[in-house]
Design brief:
The complex is a heterodimer of chains A (about 325) and B (about 280). Chain A has eight helices and 17 strands. By secondary structure, chain A is an alpha+beta fold. Chain B is an all-alpha fold. Chain B has 13 helices and two strands; from the N terminus they run ααββααααααααααα. The chains are: A alpha+beta (about 325), B mainly alpha (about 280). At the A-B interface, β6 and α2 of A face α9 and α10 of B.
């Protein structure tokens, strides 16, 4: 079953493709992420879905209705903008009520639904304030409230958390996940942060230079990246040559020890010298220089590394199933 | 050693010339005018230092009250016409897509300032006169038989005012519209606003700040205008500015002229207060 279907979307700016032949299917009630580095065209794609940017070619189908030519104000989607874009001349209440007023909802119902949403996002006390009188985190909640109060069939989120500090960002992630369960809606979330995507997404589409390179679950994207770009974008990697073939392996999948490994349990082993130790709290990142001068990054829980020091000779080991074969 | 506090004090010194200028050439003269308005006139100009409130009772003479009322009407009509013509123009310029087009259009707005104000106003006499461009054209096309009486009419004054003050309305409104974040327009569309609502609910309210600035820049100088009515209105329709000028330069009644100035200032202060009140209820 599909909720939204995007077929062969193309959009060119001057001679550069912002979106090239993009096709997607969004499943009802899923938390879908579009992930990519800045300038990859992900925001353009989101705005095309919203109807705020017109594509050069391609179609958009919503629940079997062709909405390709439907203007933004008639699409049943609402967007949370990257810089919030709250209306500076309107109070928090009137910002949130804006969409309902445009749809000529009755005054009583507007009052009811706006207050309900204000309470849901715990910003009831801010109703009479102007956007410039509240904090960034509060503005973020108002932007979210302004979109969900309209009960959009799809909520579009354009890097909504990128302007928040780490603690607030984590808090908002929890709020979004809770909200998602409460309002039973489909979310499309655009971000450049792989952490955000990995921890919240049902499925992720990775975008590079206006093209979608891989669509899959967070686990599969992380563990079975289709190419070097995706592998590198989703986390740190090592390039390892085994059996005359270059493979990729994540730092946390390499075991490290000052004793020889039991060959029965470990497929490959090698040895080297520790050149760098970075303590990161729960984990420690170890840089090991092999005899052939290759540097390997290892990430292991800090408490499992007992007393390794820089300059120590260590053995590294990994298993075949941890190797990721990608298109080079 | 210069510590932070010293640098701070040094910075303040740079404001001194301007403060000095305002005190010597504005605050003290206004004080003189205020004082003069309560004295009797000297025989050959100047003042006799005898206290009197006669100047103010003369201000309320029906002749001068009428002129006040007329001046106020002209200034209000001028402000209104400037908004009526200026807003669509400012909106048109700021919605052009190419920056180059915008700059050319803005240049056209500012271009008249390259010519002296007197010459610009004088040119209207050539255009509106009995032998002027308009009458000659209409006569040669046989549309009219006799020249239209355009120059030295209230119409000519109003036209000259509109022509001279329009840029002061267009520019601040243009700046206000230009400053509106385009994402706000996208956000309003996303929330279901059609073209009309994007304008009435977002663009217009957010451009009011510029409109208020424009109202100040047009209305206040309009109240004190005397060159335009002098040149285009003839002797028949003086504004309060003409009468003040005459009191100082021709009639040599400085105290009465001062009393009129004080009244105009009062009117301006009142209008600023009214404007502020409206503005505060629409604060951003």
């Amino acid at each position: 079953m599909r909720m939204l279907e995007i077929n062969n979307i193309n959009k060119k700016y001057n001679s550069v493709f912002a979106c090239k032949n993009i096709s997607l299917e969004i499943i009802p009630n899923e938390f879908f992420f579009i992930l990519g580095p800045s300038g990859c065209g992900k925001t353009t794609l989101l705005k095309i879905i919203a109807g705020l940017i017109e594509q050069d070619s391609g179609t958009i189908i919503l629940e079997d209705n062709n909405i390709t030519t439907l203007p933004a104000n008639e699409r049943p989607f609402n967007m949370v903008f990257q810089d919030y874009s709250l209306f500076p001349h309107l109070s928090v209440f009137n910002n949130i009520a804006f969409g309902l007023k445009m749809k000529k909802v009755s005054k009583d119902e507007i009052e009811l639904r706006v207050n309900e949403t204000l309470k849901l996002l715990k910003i009831y006390d801010l109703a009479d304030r102007k956007p410039n009188e509240i904090s960034g985190g509060q503005q973020q909640r108002v932007a979210l409230a302004r979109a969900i109060v309209n009960k959009p069939s799809i909520l579009l989120l354009d890097e909504p958390l990128s302007a928040l500090d780490e603690k607030l960002r984590f808090e908002m992630q929890q709020i979004l996940l809770e909200l998602k369960n409460k309002i039973n809606s489909t979310f499309i979330f655009v971000t450049h942060s792989q952490d955000e995507a990995l921890s919240m997404a049902d499925r992720i589409a990775i975008m590079q230079d206006g093209k979608i390179v891989q669509i899959d679950t967070p686990k599969n994207i992380y563990n079975k990246p289709i190419n070097l770009f995706v592998a590198e974008f989703m986390g740190e990697i090592n390039k390892i040559e085994t059996d005359n073939k270059v493979s990729l392996i994540r730092p946390e999948n390499i075991l490290i020890s000052n004793k020889l490994f039991d060959k029965k349990n470990i497929d490959f082993t090698t040895s080297g010298v520790i050149t760098q130790l970075l303590f990161k709290g729960n984990n420690t990142s170890v840089l090991v220089k092999l005899e052939n001068d290759l540097r390997i990054k290892v990430l292991q829980p800090s408490n499992s590394l007992n007393n390794l020091l820089i300059g120590d000779n260590v053995f590294l080991g990994w298993n075949k199933k941890s190797l990721m074969d990608v298109e080079q | 050693m210069l510590n932070n506090k010293n640098i701070y004090n040094l910075k303040n010194l740079f404001a001194l010339p301007a403060i000095f200028w305002i005190i010597v050439f504005f605050v003290i003269p206004v004080f003189f005018i205020l004082v003069f308005s309560f004295f009797e006139r000297g025989t050959y100009g100047g003042v006799n230092y005898l206290f009197s409130i006669d100047n103010f009772s003369l201000v309320f003479d029906s002749l001068y009250l009428k002129t006040f009322l007329k001046t106020l009407t002209i200034a209000i009509i001028n402000t209104f016409l400037c908004i009526l013509l200026g807003f669509p123009l400012a909106y048109f310029i700021s919605t052009r897509k190419k920056p180059k087009t915008k700059n050319w259009l803005l240049l056209l707005i500012i271009l008249p300032f390259w010519t002296n104000f007197l010459i610009r106003t004088f040119s209207w006499m050539i255009i509106l006169g009995n032998e002027g461009i308009i009458n000659n054209t209409l006569l040669s096309l046989n549309i009219i038989v006799e020249p239209l009486n355009l120059l030295f009419t209230p119409f000519a004054v109003q036209l000259g005012m509109l022509y001279n003050y329009l840029p002061f309305m267009v520019l601040p409104i243009y700046v206000a519209i230009e400053k509106i974040d385009s994402n706000l327009l996208l956000a309003s569309k996303d929330l279901g606003a059609n073209q009309k609502n994007v304008f009435t609910k977002i663009i217009f309210p957010l451009s009011l700040k510029g409109l208020f600035v424009g109202v100040f820049l047009v209305f206040i100088p309009s109240l004190g205008e005397f060159i335009i009515p002098d040149l285009l209105g003839g002797a028949k329709s003086p504004m309060i500015g003409n009468i003040i000028k005459d009191q100082f330069l021709t009639s040599r009644n400085w105290p009465f002229g001062s009393a009129l100035v004080i009244m105009v200032m009062g009117l301006i202060l009142l209008s600023i207060m009214i404007n502020n009140k409206i503005f505060k209820s629409n604060r951003f």
